[in-house]
Amino acid sequence: MLRTSWDQAVALVLKALAPLGEEYVRILEAGLNSRWCDRYENRGKQSGAFSAGTYDGAPYILMNYQPDVFDHVFTLAHEAGHSMHSYYSAHHQPYHLYQYTIFVAEVASTFNEQLLNRYLMKQAKSDLERAYYISHEIDEIRGTIFRQTMFAEFEKIIHEHVEKGDALTVETFRKIYRSLLDDYFGPEVRIPELLELECFRIPHFYRAFYVYKYATGLSAAIALADRVVNGGKAELDAYLSLLAAGCSKDPLDILRDAGVDMARPEPVAAAMERFSSLVDELATIL
User: Fold this and answer.
1) Which residues constitute the domain of residue 130?
2) Is 155 a catalytic residue?
């Protein structure tokens, strides 16, 4: 992909998020132009990317933006989703109700990535460029729904071992993780032995039962993005109400009010249908 400067990345993200309305885009643009984001590498600076703020402060973003890594444009859109979630919650809820749960947090972030990729696919100037964006979303669904579900199953199994009083040795971890890799990737994929050690480097495993929320979050985000892009003012207002809800209701009820019921199978089924259609289109192009 072409080199994308920070200013170009901001402009691209703002255009892609236009379906969220003038107010959303205006607030985000003002924030990104007034130091919401610490975006360049520096001595001693942490790697990765995240959004964090306080009730009466800006919802700051920390990342290490690299113009030659196009995926960082998606990282910006993702973290901007978290920051705008924080902004809306803080401006619509009292202090004790503004801090939303992770279950809805990963909806707001991956929703923005959905809008960005859909915008890029529409703007693609060639089949090859469109194939790149399709491939990106396929990888996103694979990594966020399939892989994180595998991670969640790994957590469930190791906690069951502890509850039974079994010892968790390195060999036990490797055996469990290897079994899951074989199940999820299937017999046609060659899995190197060293990948069995991957389970030790996933930081989310040290924050119990976090990972499945990525899978539910993206499933909900795909369904909600469909509603907003193909709907009207009512669908947009329902989504913005999710961002403004904080923790004023149970997260499942907040999502229901926005238009998606995560206690039912339809959102996950819709995500799988989108995954299947993207794979079919990519096969046609290539």
Assistant:
1) 6-138+212-285
2) no
Kindly tell me if the per-residue pLDDT of 179 is higher than 80: yes
Question: In CATH, what number is assigned to the domain containing residue 276?
Answer: 1.10.1370.20
pLDDT confidence of residue 1: 54
pLDDT tens column, 217-275: 999 999 999 999 999 999 999 999 999 999 999 999 999 999 999 999 999 999 999 99
Q: Supply the pLDDT for residue 205.
A: 87
User: Which residue shows structure tokens 């694979």?
Assistant: 142
Beta carbons of 63 and 40 less than 8 angstroms apart? no
pTM over the 0.90 mark:
yes
Secondary structure (3-state) at 52:
strand
Enumerate the β-bridge partners of residue 61: 37, 51
Which residue type sits at 91? H
Number of domains in the chain: 1
* Helices and strands (DSSP H and E) totals, the chain: 11, 3
Q: Which two tokens stand for residue 15?
A: 């255009």
Tell me whether strands 37-38 and 60-62 are parallel, antiparallel or unpaired. parallel
CB atoms within 10 A of CB 52: 14
In a domain, 143, yes or no: no
Helix (H, G, I), strand (E, B) or coil at 266: helix
CA distance 2 to 10: 15
- Active-site residue, from 29, 41, 79, 193: 79
Is 279 part of a structural domain of the chain?
yes
